[in-house]
Amino acid sequence: MTSRTEYNNPHNKGELGLPYHYEMVSDLARVTPFKQAIQKASKGKVILESGTGTSILSLIAANAGAKEVFCIELDPVIAKFAQKNIDKSGFKNIHLIQKNTLEVTAEDMNGLKADVLIAENLSTWEVTEPQLQVMNHMVENLSIKNPICIPSIIENKIELCQTQYIFEDVIELRTSFFEFTGITKPKIISEIKTYSTINMNQVNQTSFKETVTFTAKESGCVNSIRLTSPLCVYDEFTFNSSDSLMPPVILPLPEDIEVQQGQKVTIAIEYTTNSDWDNFKVEIIN
Known about the structure:
single chain, alpha+beta, Rossmann fold, Hnrnp arginine n-methyltransferase1, 2 domains, five-stranded parallel beta sheet
């Protein structure tokens, strides 16, 4: 059986099977804020969606009164499935583009510019998915100035924590993991800090190197960090995480730190988005 971790850290050229798509479309915590945002933003607008999958978000946009909907899907198997769903819907203003989003041009959109950009190429801290690369391309080349973007803002958050890595006294698993439902949660030692805030309607950097300083809320052993990426989907609609989208990620520190309440701890983080957790670098400064 394939681990859920693989679904949140895919290495299969963007091809995800129907079981994963079922998980996505049936996850109400995930779908609902995107549906509400699209329903509010779409009426009379030209919509462009990257990575349409089953076409669920594009269908919502068309049903909300969008003028034209262009949806992009790279995987030929899922693109065929999406086209079948579009045909069944009866909407004549949904146009499927089977391409890599980074290769889509204005010609693919019949010369139109998108008023609303939708992309759910998301992962925690954007580490394993091309959200920033995709949105940068669409903002720069395929949309009006200052388009509505769904999601509109990503906040990458970080906390110091203490995680259980030893089981039954002998099994040591000092590894990164996703905090899925049912997984033992780490003990939070610090306040939550914002590492970066990313506004989607502008061209953003895709590599990061920053330091973060924390204050310990209590004394104890710090051996890990907890990463989350809450979203402002659009206006009042927000999303934190679910098992199918951007679960919290726990990463071990290079070494344990014994801290006292009120002590300052500084760490440096360097990484490139759309890469791999193995290339995510964490260094303890003090």
